[in-house]
Fold each of these.
Amino acid sequence: MRVLAAGFIFALGLATSFSAHAGVPPPRPTEFDICQGCHGVFAQGNAELGAPRIAGLDAQYLGRQLADFRDRRRGSGAGDAFGAQMVTIASMLDDTTIGRLAAYVSAMPEVQVPTTLSGDGKAGRAAYTTCAACHGVNGEGSVSLGAPRLAGMTDSYLARQFVAYASGMRGSSAGDDRGAAMRGITAGIKGDKAVRDVISYAVSLPGPATFSATACADHPAGACGSSR
Ligand code: HEC
Ligand code: HEC
């Protein structure tokens, strides 16, 4: 009972601190609680659990992924153990709840996420030219193209997704047009090292919130995206 009460008070505290954020309606106290167990209290992710950072992803993308998991357009492929966890969670969510959660998570403050992938970002820079067309020169993503932000997100998760698109574990269900688009471009990146390198470059980009001319000049790879 004490634990429950403490959890409840903590959740209330979180809801209060985040509701100050850009006028986003907070989810009901219990709605985000279930996500925290795997994605963390700041939605920063937990690489060991395979759960990515989701804080700061665009609300439309978040909402679409949750609906895709729920409606079995994502996460139901053979052998997709990580995706299956999200299918279970999302099956409990209706459209209204998904909308609230997506707005809330997308407005969460920036978090720093440790990198765990042994990739060489500089080596991946040239390959990122292709990706920049949809994911942006700063890795910020494109809402209109449905391409999510990659900058600052969980690198091990992104590499796993890239391989999942390549194998068809993600992006080959009926109705998953965006996933199919992403599948189409995986053929250009061959081998595990090339995948690690391009993802390491992508996550190191400044992204939407932290972007500035100074951040670009100071960027370890020397510029923000290869077209600059
Ligand atoms: C049991 C652990 C667990 C719980 C609880 C959980 N997730 Fe996840 N979530 C995962 C894992 C693992 C993945 C990676 C799935 C994959 O590899 O395709 C994921 C992926 C996601 C993604 C896809 C991110 C992207 O970049 O495409 C979203 C969005 C998401 N979760 C939102 C949520 C929300 C919102 C909740 C709470 C309602 C939640 N999750 C609860 C484990 C969990
Ligand atoms: C033609 C546009 C396009 C190009 C080019 C493109 N992507 Fe994507 N990418 C997308 C879209 C759209 C999605 C979301 C698909 C979905 O909803 O499943 C996506 C999703 C992803 C994801 C999953 C992100 C997540 O949070 O789950 C990764 C990783 C990724 N792309 C990496 C890359 C890399 C690396 C490149 C360059 C080699 C690249 N993409 C090029 C459109 C593109």
Note: The pocket of heme C (ligand 2) is lined by residues 127, 130-131, 133-135, 145-148, 158, 161-162, 171, 178-179, 181-182, 185, 189, 198, 202 (CB under 6 Å).
Amino acid sequence: MIRIEPGAWQVMVGHGRACYPKECCGIMLGTVNGDSRTVTLAIACKNAYEGEQRDRFQLDPRDQLAADRKARELGVSVLGFFHSHPDEDSYFSATDLKNSWPWYSNVVMSIRGGEFNVARSFIANDDQTAATPEELTY
Ligand SMILES: [Zn+2]
């Protein structure tokens, strides 16, 4: 299960609303304790997808490197990624699955009419053929 601390949550929802009606994306840092993950810091990133961003996002590798560095600096881990679905439900799409990595948490926020609706988290299996919902609190 994954818990998102209020400060990190505000960054994520704020980014989702600001990017609407395009998809936003970002990286979550925090701590792992057995099966329990706590997001202490969320980094809002630029959607680097070159094309229609209404239903697509791509992280810039430079942002990923910067997040890795930041995690080391703070002594925490990169726990996963977040993105928004403008005017769509919170689900893990085939594209999301294809672009994901095992182990990491993937939080998908549904943003409807520019306002936050609901969020869910998913973890892809090792061969990226399916994603398992993960209990999420925010
Ligand atoms: Zn998606």
Note: The longest strand covers residues 36-45.
